[in-house]
Amino acid sequence: MKGKTKLKKIIILIALLSLALTAALTGCAGQEPTGQAPEQGAGQGSGQDVIHVHNWGYFIDRDVLRIFEEEYGIRVNYHEFVNNETLYAALSLGGMIADVIVPSDYMIARMIEEEMLYELDFSNIPNYSLIDPRFRGLSFDPDNRFSVAYKVGTTGLIYNSAMIPYEITSWAALFDERFAGQILTFNNPRDAFAVALQYLGHSINTTDEDQLQEAFELLLQQRPLLQAYVMDEIFDKMESGEAWIGPWYAPDFLIMYEHNPNLRFVRPTEGTNFFVNAMVVPRGSQNREGAEKFINFMARTDIALMNMRAINYASANYEAAAIFSEELNDLERDVVFVGPEEYANTEVFYHLPRHILDLYDRLWVQLRS
């Protein structure tokens, strides 16, 4: 047990170092709320006149933050995180000021299990009625007590048709020696393993240790072919043509495509992940009332629509999603929204048993060492 505890601490420290490095390089995880410098003496801020919001990179229209501040008189200190695991690590170790966070489905389930989240007072969130019923009562929060769905989408493959002049339809391309040195992959364990598991014909939620070991061996074989493990760095690499192919979250393809029309997007035939990101309030929040006001604000139709137009991710607000769908061309609509047949070929990540999470941690450390 001591060995496992030591390993867990090492993993958390690695994650935190990654988070700190990303913050230093991007300047996104600092103290500035909406792109403006904090007022004199404001510092991090606390109390009822400020909230701290932690969200993914490229995942909000900063103008909506200014609108919230103007309407409610509550200052937003906005921070970005690179993946679920670094967010979890930072919260686990304490010292992170957070009022609203936006993790993915499986991480929300883990945080609920570990009592890291407050239950929401939905009387303060009347716009919850605008959340599509398909995104309520999901596996990570079946009783609708802790979360309000924010954005939904799928993963898929993005490739450069100028460099790969034929159609790609399978995850197999990420393990193809012809593309050695030009391949990117996810720098987080659940997404990276999901690619290998689906290519091998296994569930992304498998608890079969032999299947996870098989996926690990495939990822080890892939490692010499990779240009890099990436998160948001994928934008620059794919847009500039520095890399030829990589897996990523579908709606972000439209940002890359705008800068490089040679890029193509496909949901591989073996299947892919359907994800739900939701707004939750972590224990330790210093402004739960302000947090719930913010969640209600973000679920409002005009704000959800404004946000979708900026970031391309489908909103869980059904009114806003319907309006946005009509504004898109066929290519855009196919990327942002998932039809019934494609949806049937997706899986949502589940929270896994503790011993499987430990195995993921060990294998990921080995893979990245």
Give the SSE layout.
Layout: H1 2-26, E1 50-56, H2 62-72, E2 75-81, H3 84-93, E3 100-101, H4 105-113, E4 148-160, E5 183-186, H5 189-199, H6 209-222, E6 226-230, H7 234-240, E7 245-249, H8 253-259, E8 263-266, E9 272-279, H9 288-298, H10 301-311, E10 314-315, H11 318-327, H12 330-336, H13 340-343, E11 346-347, H14 354-368
Parallel strand pairs: 1-2, 1-3, 5-6, 9-11
Antiparallel strand pairs: 4-7, 4-8, 4-9, 4-10
Describe, in plain words, how this protein is organized in 3D.
- By secondary structure, the protein is an alpha/beta fold.
- The protein has two domains: 2-152 and 277-347, D-Maltodextrin-Binding Protein, domain 2; 153-273, Periplasmic binding protein-like II (D-Maltodextrin-Binding Protein, domain 2, 3-Layer(aba) Sandwich), CATH 3.40.190.10.
- Helix content is 41%, strand content 16%.
- The chain has helices spanning 2-26, 62-72, 84-93, 105-113, 189-199, 209-222, 234-240, 253-259, 288-298, 301-311, 318-327, 330-336, 340-343, 354-368; strands at residues 50-56, 75-81, 100-101, 148-160, 183-186, 226-230, 245-249, 263-266, 272-279, 314-315, 346-347.
- The strands form three sheets. Strands 4, 7, 8, 9, 10 and 11 form a six-stranded mixed beta sheet that branches. A three-stranded parallel beta sheet has the order 2-1-3. A two-stranded parallel sheet has the order 5-6.
- Helix 1 crosses helix 14 (354-368), helix 6 packs parallel to helix 14 (354-368) and helix 7 (234-240) runs parallel beside helix 8.
- The longest helix has 25 residues, at 2-26.
- Residues 1-44 have low confidence and may be disordered.
